[in-house]
Amino acid sequence: MAAKDRLSKAEEAARAARSNQYLLRVIEDEQLRASLMSAYMAARGAYGRLSNGKPAGRVLLEDQKLHKQIGEAMGALRDASSSLRQPPAKQRRRKRRVVRMFALLTIGATLALVMNEGLRSKVLDMLFGAEEEFDYTSSTTPSEPAPAPVAS
Q1: pTM of the full predicted structure?
Q2: For residues 140 and 45, what is the distance between their CA atoms, to the nearest angstrom?
Q3: Which of 102, 45, 103, 53 minimizes the C-alpha distance to 76?
Q4: How confident is the model at residue 3 (pLDDT cuts 50, 70, 90)?
Q5: Neighbours of 83 (CB within 10 A)
Q6: Once rounded to an integer, what is the mean pLDDT over residues 62-77?
Q7: pLDDT digits over 18-35, tens only?
Q8: Total Cβ atoms within 10 A of residue 60
Q9: Following DSSP, what letter does each residue of 38-98 receive, concatenated?
Q10: Average pLDDT for residues 75-99, to the nearest whole number?
């Protein structure tokens, strides 16, 4: 019976983990994991320096390496908390990337049309059809030659 209880407790824990947005965020976001890991390592190092046998008050006031490790841990935790508060960055970057690529493509195509006369004529021919050459030939002939001017 104890095995079934443990199994049901594990099942409940797994369901809770799947519905927890923060845990999913830690699983998916590599940068968040890295900042949490660096905070843990810095805090662990600071605790090791603090509990090395010297009086804690003296170590807290005088040990510069301890100050540095505590600062690193605080910075990493600050990065992790701000990363958790913000929406996932992947979706925004994709949208921004597509917009940037479209703008770049539009600007490049416009410049190519403005600078290259051959390309411009090809595009105009595709849009409006090819220009027909038109030679005008008169179907009427002059009836009599023009009179000569009178000399005075």
Answers
A1: 0.49
A2: 105
A3: 45
A4: confident
A5: 18
A6: 91
A7: 888 888 888 888 888 899
A8: 13
A9: HHHHHHHHHHHHHTSSS-HHHHHHH-HHHHHHHHHHHHHHHHHHHHHHSPPHHHHHHHHHH
A10: 79
